[in-house]
Target: F-box domain-containing protein
Amino acid sequence: MTPFPTRMIKSVLSKTLSTLSFRQHPTVRNISDTNTSRDITICHHPPINCLPDELLIEIFRLCFVDVELFLPPTAVGVPLLLCNVCRRWRDIAVTVPVLWSTIKLNKKHSARFVSTWLSRAGTLPIGVSFILEPSKFRPRKSHRHFDVLVPLSCRWQYLELRILPGASFRLLKDLSSDVLSSLEVLNVIDEGNFRPYDPSSFGKVFKSAPRLHSVDLWGVHRSDPLRMGLPWSQLIRFATDGYISVNGCHKLLDRLPNLRSGSFKILLGPEISQIPLKRLSLPDLENLDLSVASNIDGLLVSLVLSALRFLWIDCIQTEGWTHTNFMSFIEPFSLNLHTLQLFRPSMSEASMIQCLLTMPSLVVLVLQDHAEFGFIGDRLLALLTYSGSAEPPLCTRLETLHLASVFACQDSQIASMLESRWRLEYVSDNDTCCSYIYSHALDNAATDVPHHTHSGFAT
Model:
């Protein structure tokens, strides 16, 4: 074909296509024009910028919901991150008081920075975290921080104290008795860990806080919490890693009649006394976390915890309790227990099975046996297996099962249990997660899991 006819054919085709495009249905042309306009608009005006201020404010509030209570101000955290996006976001963020209602101070923050930050919280209750330092080492900025914070103490709702060795409580002791009217949560962290302070002078500062209901004391290993003049009767949460005895723990619980959540470390030997501990009922206690390094039979026998739903016990030493006393302890709450975590208890496999038989509502089960007590054996795993036999399986409502064992069971039994609980035709509606930690190599394991491997299975 010669060049001239080729050009002529291309010209005719081009005119034909142009005519067809012009004669297309008006609706199609309108849709095309709309799409083009929309693409241009999105390019220059992202949808997030088209949202009304009220909706952006609500989104910013939700950004703050899951943020850790005390975080140091940084450019990559809320709210400064929001302020760095654009001018509009900054203008909106500075008008949302909740974003500025907590602050964790350190030496680099100027008093002006702290004052500006907290002024944006408006009249909201605030949360502050600061360091108590020895007077002779306290930098000038710390004094200026207190000049800003102390006048706002009537609005302190959350307070975190990081205490350095030799710290003085003078700045807090100078507070009047009615200035902590909003305080609800107190966290004390002794960052020295080894040098004790006088707890009586510390606790008196907070004795008159009418709303204080939650206290955490960490790193205060050698300070007796019983000597703190806290408003014990109004606390609903108390946690400490201080070294206390069985009797000391009982005395603490006796001072906490409204306790709902408690965490204690019983690391001291029992006092020499032949008088049994009195019966103690805590009808509101739902969470109990114990770390024990001595026999706690006396404490278990004395407690009546009818509302308990979450129980964690870590046995640092092997001799924690006798089985009979433990069964008596769990009897008032076993039917409704949601979570059981036992680490290294001195229990046989038969005792553990008897314990789990009384807990039909368990949703979370975490067990770690001891080198001398390998209670996670074939019989226990068989009863955790959906076998279709007349004998009903244990813990049919489990959603999470975590076992850490010295490997007192057969590989095939582990595989059968996992297969039955997570095979489609047997799986319970509630079963969602299982893991097993092996303490020995599995040479011929049916599950083909290597040494020290954590295996997760999900429906």
Notes: The first strand starts at residue 102 and ends at 104. The chain is about 30% helix and 20% strand. The two ends are 68 Å apart (CA to CA).
